[in-house]
Amino acid sequence: MPTSALNPTPLLPPRPLTGLRNRPRSDSNSSSHSSHSSHSSHSSYAARHPDRVLPKPPSAHPPFLSLLAILLILLLFHLSGLWLFTKGFLLTRLELQGFNRCPTPPSRDWLPPPPPPSLLEQLPDSTLQDPQLDPLLTSSALVEWDHLLSPRHDGGQGECTLPPTHSKLILIIIDALRYDFIAPIVQTPTTGASPNLSWEPDPNHHDQLRLPSTLARSQPHSSILTHFVADPPTTTLQRLKGLSTGTLPTFIEAGSNFGGMGAVKEDNWLLQLRNKILSQRRVSAQADDSPEDARSAGMAFAGDDTWTSVFADVFDEDKTWAFDSFNVEDLDTVDRGVESSLLPFLQSDHPNRTSWLHSDWSLLVGHTLGVDHVGHRLGASHPRMATKLEEMQSFLENVTEAMDDETLLILMGDHGMDARGDHGGDGELEVGAGLWMYSKRGSFAPSGDEVTKLAQEGLDPSHGLELEELLSDPEIQSLVSSHVAFSPLPSPPFPSRGHRSIPQIDIVPSLSLLLGLPIPFNNLGSVIPEAFPTSFSSSSSNPKFGSERLLRALRINARQVKTYLDSYSASSSDLSPFSAEIEALWTRALLADARYSSLVHRLSSAPSQQEELDSARREASKAYFRFTRTSLVRARSVWAQFDLVRMVLGLLLIGLSILTTWVLWSASKLGLEGRLDRVTCEDEDVDPLRSVGERLRQEKLLAKTKVTRCSVSMQEMRSIVVRQTARGALLGMALGSLTWALIRLTLTIQAKVGLLDCVLFGAASCSQVKLFLSQSSLMRRSMRSQSDSPPLLTIPRTKLFQSLGLIVALFHSILFASNSFTVWEDRVVMGTLVSILTLRFALGFGSPTDRLARRIPGLALVMAVLLRLASISKVCREEQAPLCETTFYSTSSVGSDDSSRRNGGESAQAGTAALNSPYVIATSYLFAYWVVPTTLSYVLDQSKSNVGVARVFIKWLLRPTLLAGCGYWLADWAIPSELLGDSDEVGKTLLDKARTLVARLDLFAICILGITFWIFSPLCLELKREEVKEDRADDGWKGGRDQGGDGGDGDGDGRMRVVVMGFSNSMGSSYLLLMSLIYSLVFLLSQPAGQLGLSLCFLATVLNAELSDSEKDSEIITMQLDEDERENSSKRVGEEEKEGERKKKKKKKKEKSNLKEEELGSDLDRPVESEGGSKVNVKGKGKGTADGIPNLPTLLDTATAALIGYVAFFSTGHQATLSSIQWRVAFVGFSKVTYPYSPAFVALNSFGPLVLLPCFGSALLCVWNLTPKPGSVGNGVGGGDTNPSPSEPATPTRITNSLLRTMTGLILHQTLVTFSTMVFSLRFRRHLMIFKIWTPRFMLGSINLIAHDIFSILSILACLQVVSKVSRVFGSRFE
Prior knowledge:
Blueprint lengths: L27 H9 L5 H7 L12 H29 L27 H6 L11 H4 L2 H9 L19 E7 L4 H4 L28 H8 L4 E7 L6 H10 L23 H20 L10 E6 L1 H5 L9 E4 L9 H14 L8 H4 L4 E6 L1 H9 L4 H20 L4 E6 L15 H4 E8 L9 H8 L5 H10 L2 H6 L3 E2 L14 E5 L3 H8 L34 H23 L7 H23 L5 H32 L5 H27 L2 E5 L14 H7 L7 E5 L3 H33 L8 H20 L1 H12 L8 H19 L4 H5 L1 H20 L5 H21 L26 H7 L14 H25 L6 H26 L10 H32 L5 E6 L28 E6 L4 H19 L3 H42 L9 H21 L7 H6 L22 H17 L25 H27 L31 H29 L6 H41 L5
Parallel strand pairs: 1-5, 1-6, 2-9, 3-4, 3-5
Antiparallel strand pairs: 2-7, 6-7, 8-9, 10-11, 12-13
């Protein structure tokens, strides 16, 4: 807004002129000095004329560093609380280092030993129909039977693995292979299903990879094709852990997917296989007396380099080909590398085959990335996906044709993908991977519809029927369902019972036993029943009992799980709530097995006895299967067990930090009480921010005795905070150590809370309590002063906005009490923000001047429109279906958007893809070239600050960097599009290099050139000489030779003066340039739709500063008018009670306020008056002072800034879900993952809009239109002495108090939100959606709070740089 007396421009001090006619005559002594030295410098002049030269202003660094220290302490409190809560909430799994070994080799003719006779006498009539198990749990006969079946107990006759069915394994992992990509696509309804005319297959990914479904249909005994359920988080590294060890991941492990962290140290089937092969080769070498190759196990790998970091020493060095896994721009290199590396092992005529390398192998692992990268890059329903799946079809055909009968082929996806190609969360499409197992030998049992087909073809379906009985057991189904619905393949036309489904970790025990390996020690999976047909062992020398292969597998599996659970229980008490249930199920299984074994050893050839034997075998199989499934479910719930002690401790610390933040927020106005040097002895009820100059002048006169008083500077406030928190921390550390020692001595079992936890909680809690208690009297007095404040300080707008800001923060926090409100947070935030702006719009019409009555509602309306437009761009959560449609990505190039929407599987994300719209890109160009630069120039023009360096910056730095950001995403869109054609590889390569170059140049221009330019550039100022008009010569102007002008005769006619354009907003304009650089960086890292949303929110943030400034002007004028009315009220008679006179008075007041504003020099069209000097002062205080309430931003101002950040977060394509992370920005400027840039780019893309806009936008509230005080003005600004003595310093501007109030207000909002997410995460820890809704929201809130603490500190450092510039130029003092 324009400068006015509300923003006065004090007169600059008269400077010593160097011209001859202005130079005082010197005597001979001075002339000799001049001849002796040529440097008649400012220092020598100051020595000779101390009364004419201003003293150098004190540095602003001490108060700013004190403010940073206070915020750093607050950051430490937040880190302590969040660390404790996270340790209790996002638990890491206890990794046991046990290794499963087989003491005896597997036998094809193994039979269970006969149970003890005493146990047979105790067997109940029906083992599985709720038997009386309590007497048997401690039965010596049962223990003896348990030992007999154990392979590791002395005298035990049990087995720990099965004879291998295959000697070689080919494992192909197609990253992000979703189940419907390989599932059979039915064109006609299956049995039990009716036609579904609304469903259509997606031509881009359905029925493209046809080989698995074709062979599963034609060779049911050779194939297993199922839905393969991944455990979240669905990131590759966590899935590889589960697929190799059989363990469940924890939520917090998702972060280790970046950087290759998290090498597998647990027992896994890959290591078991390597040890077995090396052991066999060692024995063979000793028998043949041949040299031993201890390094070669014939295990080859090609593909995703994550494998080499997770399994560093498993594969042969000369048979490993790893490729970069994070370059999502590369769709083909890894796939071609896998194909060219693995096919020579299978095809004897392959041109790349080398006999010494490719002839000896036992395991081939290939991990392709093309499907995943197409999904990330283009979406699941892009035509390029069909091309990629056809490539995988060709590759698999080559593999299946070349493999022999001794080879087992397994094709799987490590996870699925959503409609945009993203993954990481627990959405249906993200966890729905596919599995296909294939063996030419015909080693598998059919299930499902294939059993019916066998019966129709006259074949024996008994084995399939037995599997169906096992899989359809109600108790097992209630634990883990064997068939699930999958929305991309709905019923009808697919079967109503759903699709055959197995947990991903079930592959671990199944593969281990199929290869003749011990099951990994920590496995919790169950064997896949179809992989162990009951008739496979019919070639055994004991054919009667060859049909028990499935029971043998389940028995070995259950024994391994029981051993693991016993070891886990010995190390942790987590399983204690379920120990009785697990022991009862294990007893049932042992008893059922004992019944079956007793029948085996007394079996005759009678058919009736054979039926009894088969029945007993099926019951034993069910009992073991129930045990393993129950163990899985209970262990999964155990690892969802929360350490309530740590969670409560962390919650208490964050709760205390809310009180601490409130104390600091109040202290920004009232100061803090403490033992300080006796600088003032005024009454403590007096506002400590008043009469600062008088206090400082008394400093030398008062004794340096310690007294209890309020702080009057930021340094004193910092000393109080440090002293109180340090004392409290020492006490808390002692109490924490003592508490931990008492826990160790009194509890029989070791508590989960360790010494570090106790000491940390004690230090953080006691320090905050000590600080709060030390300020209790001041806080009570503050509450009384707010209710009993004098009329001048009773400002309706301030009190209303403070209350509303707190209400908004509390309302935002309470949202998380409901899962629905949490899911729809984007809509609620937008509605709340529009409501705030509507209120400010309405209140603006009550402004005391016509100009402000137009300006305030206009700014509020423009902000509301900008934010509403920004909210159009959004990415929908899965839970928002079907009431939300994603608009962030383009749907124009998705051929099957309509069919996908009808299918219902991609509801909230229906028809979306990871593509950007060319129309959106064109619009972003418009914003980059015209909208944003023009708007910023217009805003700066209002304060006459669009001068000097500002014009250069906007034209030659901001606009080019924004256009470069648009150019990067334009090239990103053009490369995969049909614009260049599929055959123009040269053009695509050149465009890709140009894209990378543009991004790097843009990053260099912003981060190096831009920041350097901003640091060393001058303020946005410009000097202008102009003649004072005659009618203004006697209009109250002081100092005709303004700012040291050298013309004029002093009569008023032709008087010249120097106008400093941009002076009143010299701080805000310079700070806005830095904000523009930060915005330009995030603009580059945002996709086109996000660029538009970010730009609109950035402009709204700038306008928020303008709106707040205008509201302050309105309040100051209202205060003056009210004071004038009180002065005149004593002279009025009782005519005010008449209605007509009251209306007349109101009209007169309006006219007077308009006249008052004109008298104060606030006319928009009078730049000379507003920039040349200050005609009058507002009761001796300009807006530049910080000793009045209107100068401090309100909680509603900071709440508006915070909510704008949330709107920017949602409008840039983000949600509180892992799947919304835009990994592709990790490659801006780079062709592969490059540290530390790639993680930093992803973090800036995700949290930049949410954190940077509120933090820097809140600091902008403090410096926007804050007029600096030149060093000569002192207390006589505009109304006192127009030629003050230079020896009398100006009153300092207490900007640090304003910054402290603004930043603590913003942090208070974020702390309340984070505290709420913690409370309701604790409250709903047993809720079904805890890890889907509240856990990601808590993680977002925690990161957001810490980021706000950090970037608040950085924004204050930026303010320090601006303040230092102003201090150097004008000699202004800041505190």
